[in-house]
Structure prediction request, 507 residues.
Amino acid sequence: MTAEQTRLEICNLSMDLYPQVKKLMDEVYSELGGAWPSHTIEHLINEFPEGQIGITDGDSLVGIALSVQVDYVRFSNPHTYEDIVDANDRVNNDKEGDALYGLDVVIAQTHRGIRLGRRLYDARKELCRQYNLRAILAGGRIPNYFQHRDQFSPAQYIHEVDQKRIYDPILSFQLSNDFQVKRLLKKYLPEDEKSVGYATLLEWNNILFEPEDSVLDTPKNIVRVGAVQWQMRAVESYEEMLYQIEFFVDTVSDYQSDFVVFPEFFNAPLMALTEKTSQTEAIRYLAGYTDRLREDMSRLALEYNANIITGSMPLAENGMIYNVSYLCHRNGQVDEQRKIHITPHEAYDWVIQGGDKVKVFQTDAGRVGILICYDVEFPELSRILASQGLDILFVPFWTDTKNSYLRVRLCAQARAIENECYVVIAGSVGNLPKVESLDVQYSQSAVFTPSDFPFPHDAVLNEATPNTEMLLFSDLDMTKLKILHSEGSVRNLKDRRLDLYDVTVKK
Prediction:
């Protein structure tokens, strides 16, 4: 399985998918009787359709999470598996219940290791918030306990797993997803020999209680973005650079960011690995890494569950060189945006060609566009994106001096105001003595907003320390954009005089 071949989508289960549900459960629960019969799954879907969540890769079901509603007081106290699922495999669902009870979570063997379980748990948490339920409860098996039963009591074993001195595939995962062990359940599932019949009663508390109209398809109101102000530094190998990239993606993921954006030509240190002295040859050498880097960054987007804007990198195609930014979706999809306007330096020294398409990309956290550095200085492009419903504009850039940086910054601020959108700019800092034309950098990454009462008074939501490697995080309130479009003090989009002028795309 490669990242570019993966197309992950979250969905609610239907009976059409039962053959695949059965296959998954038979594979995982071969020692516990295999899959539930079709009538059990059908009952769950009929009783609580939103609680039966799946992940598909193309036409294949690769993960499921099953849930029911229960009474919190009843099931936050000791109970057994049969209190949830009776001897006839009929699951008890309480439509008036004030808590979510997590049943099975199953991931296909082919798709393990890319954190699909975390996605399913995040979907459950969102379901709990939107239904205004008190908590998520779950009876969790401890399948590695049989290996330690002579050394530890069940309570001691749970403590050792909590301290990460012992790994348990289920309990360790639950704890890493913010669940707390509420109590030990005895004889929860007596036939579970690996757990020696024990289980943990786990609980995740919902502190929001703000239900939404729908469950899975509701657009996010708060979108978190992370901008990498990247330090240019010498590297000895491609692997060393990839290690640095993964460090930042991992860190951004820890803060549950929806997007992470890297600067333009952030991979330029790789040019120092060649002995070629010609700038034209050096940029073509760098382009030789692009396919590999795109694949690796798409994999990171999957593994760390964050949409990645890959800065930009040179792409060799049909004898031409283009400056390309990739949007690596966390569902495995990859989109590209080529730089439209090429600077004199890029045209003369690197012989880079300009692209001919600009578009808005639909993501799971809003509609986004990408303009690479110089492109943001041309207002026509962002106006085209605004006409396509732009929410967030990402601008990866590289600038060497403060005056060139200010051109990018001031134009980006203007784009945010005139198009009533958020604009995120990300640049690089530091020096690269062995890379001609990229030897010095000046940048200050920032997040800009429209200028109106719901937004900061200076239309700057956040900004980095100039010329310092760091991460910049910001939460973007998409509801404020909706209000601005219709009720703003001024309405830059609505008040255009389309009877006098318009911006059109010729191709």
